[in-house]
Amino acid sequence: MSSSQRPRLVGLPPVIAHGTRLVVLGSFPGAASLKAQQYYAHPRNHFWPIVGALFGIDLVAMPYASRIEAIRERGLGVWDVYAACLREGSLDSAIEAAEHNDLASLKRLAPALQAIAHNGGESARSMRITSALGLPVHRLPSTSPANASWSFERKLAAWRQVFVAVGLSTA
User: Fold this and answer.
1) Facing residues of 80 across strands?
2) Cα 115 from chain centroid?
3) Closest CA to 163 of 144, 140, 147
4) CB-side neighbour CA atoms (13 Å) of 114
5) CA 88 to CA 135: how far, in whole Å?
6) Tens of pLDDT, residue by residue, the chain (171 residues)
7) Active-site residue (options: 45, 101, 119, 147)
């Protein structure tokens, strides 16, 4: 299907509160997330298991609304670098004609923001934009099931370093 025949996909709204201290930016929601209208809805994505392990709670067992409440209470925000794009399937490599979210608004949306973390390589391509905000910016290994070269334990260790540095996790 040519790009002119594909519908333009629109992402999800930010999950950011006044007290957000760390925002994790993905690239753009996958097909499962768009269908469910939930961040990281694919059952094999490691986002919720990793964040749950870092917070010491079973986020995976919670309904989505409770997950969102739990991360907000703990100072974690979630958003994507792209607001809209053309894409067949869920792979970042298939993203075309991407339109950025207003990443410059992050400090206004979250005045307590201490750092930004990019979830994976495609998101990290926008580090030039987020670095301009004057906060520490981290590149984390993707939690996507497509990132099979990193084990869960290796991803968890990398994510733990950032969460500890920002004070969202103690171990």
Assistant:
1) 26
2) 13
3) 140
4) 13
5) 34
6) 555 567 799 999 999 999 999 999 999 999 999 999 999 999 999 999 999 999 999 999 999 999 999 999 999 999 999 999 999 888 888 999 999 999 999 999 999 999 999 999 999 999 999 999 999 999 999 999 889 899 999 999 999 999 999 999 876
7) 45
Residue 63 counted as domain residue: yes
Backbone torsions φ then ψ of 111, nearest 5 degrees: -65, -20
Residue 147 among the catalytic residues: no
Q: Provide the CA 118 distance to its chain's centre, in angstroms.
A: 7
CA distance 74 to 155: 20
CATH number at residue 99: 3.40.470.10
Largest CA distance in the chain: 49
Domain assignment present for residue 159? The answer is yes
Which residues are bridge partners to 84 per DSSP? 10, 99
pTM assigned to the model: 0.95
The count of domains in the chain is: 1
Structure tokens, 83? 């607001």
